[in-house]
Each structure stands twice: as structure tokens, then as C-alpha cells.
Amino acid sequence: MSLRYIVLLILPPNPKRCLFLLVLAGGLLLSACGRGRRVLEVVYITAPQVVLRDRVAPVYNKVGLARNGERVEVLDRERRFVKVRTSSGAEGWIEQRYTITQQVFDQLQKLAGDNRNDPVQAPGITRNETNLHLEPVRDSEHLYQLNQGAKLFILKRATTEKEPAAPPGTQSNKEAPQPVMEDWWLVRDAEGHTGWVLARMMDLDVPLDVAQYAEGRRIQAFFVLDEVRDGDQKIPEYLVLLSEPKDGMPFDYNQVRVFTWNLRRHRYETAYRERKLKGSFPVTVSHESFDKEGTLPIFVLKVRDASGNLVDRKYKLNTPIVRRVLMPGEEPPKPVAPRRARRRRRRR
Prior knowledge:
The protein is of the alpha+beta class and 348 residues long. It has helices at 3-9, 15-36, 102-114, 208-211, 339-347, and strands spanning 41-45, 49-53, 62-67, 71-78, 81-85, 91-95, 99-101, 122-126, 130-133, 142-146, 151-161, 181-189, 194-198, 202-204, 218-230, 233-243, 255-262, 267-274, 279-289, 295-304, 310-318, 321-325. The strands form six sheets. A five-stranded antiparallel β-sheet has the order 6-5-4-1-7.
């Protein structure tokens, strides 16, 4: 308390004035005590919003709110609860399970930084409310929660066990069951938050004109390669990557299709298809100059060769033709005899 207020309190009595000064002095002392309270640690809120309680008891008063991702200071602990102070100065008790530590927050920041420049493989939309996890595991730490219908950008895929297989010896007279695998997507939201999302919790935002040609397969990624003008409209032409319609596959995709627009029939047609690939993300799409052909769209796939090595394959699109472009040091593929010719040879 300042010397000014001490002098005022010892002036000749005035009931109303004295009462006012006493209340003011008490408030200043409490405020000073609050500012000087030792901060135990800093944590972050993982729930959409959390009510701040005035006490740890079944019956309590609401004294404030803390929201998802907010940084709060821990002032005290009691069993499963922590007393926190928000950036606005509100103080209250919350359940500790709704928080993560500074260390986990830093790990999430590092995950976002490490993948900041990764090329987007496809846009997606969440089916339900879901969390952005630190790792592609159900019980891994998380911070940010996404609303239903949130738009995301897919960066990578991972596959992990949903439940660990039973240890040896626990299955008497029966074969040990195969582990159940599930796919995860590493995604980035519109605000730049990055984390892992269970694949079944979101859908790829694939245009219906292209999705109808999936033929029972799962579309894993898609890209706009080029645009052609049909009347007053600009029609995109697509590169689409597909896989088996189940989780846990040992590759990100095993089939590639390029859809170009037929100007006479005004519809999409398959300009190129390649099967039996063992492809991995990321796929990159750009443009490159090819002398007389001019600047053309290109795409580069990462696939496993016969030796199991991950190699790059480049392709160019000169609508409606797609051709391989040899990489430095790459040998041209061996020609394959037509099916009819092979049958004639067998008959002879």
C-alpha cells in the first residue's frame, strides 16, 4: 500500500470515506498478492472449452472459461485438479485431464514446423468432431480439436495397429489373431495446426465427376494437372491415385489414373492408367518446358522398383497423351509384347 493511502486512513474520521478507503486498500493488497503468486508451470487447454470453478467440490460457482489451445498458468494442485490463471486474469480450478504440458505443446509445434513445406496430397473434410494427435495412435497426446465439416489438407499417410496382438501363449489351441490395422492422415488445418487424424474420421473432398470412376477402389489423393476450355467453362484435368478399399496396405497407392476432358463428348475419359504400383507419398505436380511441345504439366511418383528401392518416376501430360519422362540415369522400360502376339507364340 502506498504512503498516500496510509496518511488518508489516519485522517479525522469520516465513516463513508473510511469505508471506501478500507475497501480500496484491501483490493490493492489482494491484487498484489495475486500478481506475486508463484507459477508452477504453463499448460494448454485440450477441450473445446473448460469451466473455471471457484473450489474443488461437487457444488461450485463458475468463475470463468478457458478455451481450446489457450495457454494458462498453473498456480496450485489438488488431486485431479489444477488451479489456473488465464491470460485475462481469471483464476479457477479445472480437471488436469483437459491440459497438456509445455513439452507436448513444443512437440506439436515441431511437428508443424517439420512438415510446413510438404506438398498437399488432397483436401479433406472431417466427418465428426476429432482431435489432432501428436502421433498416429489413438491414445497419443492431442491439443487442438476440429469441428465437424472442418477443411483440412492431407500431407502424409501412416498405418498402425488399432489394438496390439495378444501375447504368445494367451490363445490356447487357437491361432493368434492378426492385428487390426488402421490408416491415419497427417493433416494441416486452415490455421496451420498440424497433427494426425484417424482416416475414417474424414473424407477426401473429391469432385463427384471424378469420384464416380473409382470403380470400388479408394481414392488416396488427387491433383489438378491442367485446365481446358469448353465453351465458357474451364474444365480441370486430374491425376488420381487409388488403392485397395481397406486399411493397413503396405503402400500409399497402387494405381494411377489421369482423367482428361473430351471436348467433343463433353465428358471425362481415362487418358492414362498404370496398375500394380507400390507408391508412396509425396507426389509432386508442376510444369516443365519440353522444346517444341512447350511447357507441359508434369507429375513425379515415388514407387518401389523390383529391388524394393524407392525411386522417382516422371510423367508429362500433353492432352490427351501421357508419357514417361526418363530421369537422369534411368533406362527406358523394356517393351512388352502385345497379348495377341504372345498367344500366337504359345500355340506354335
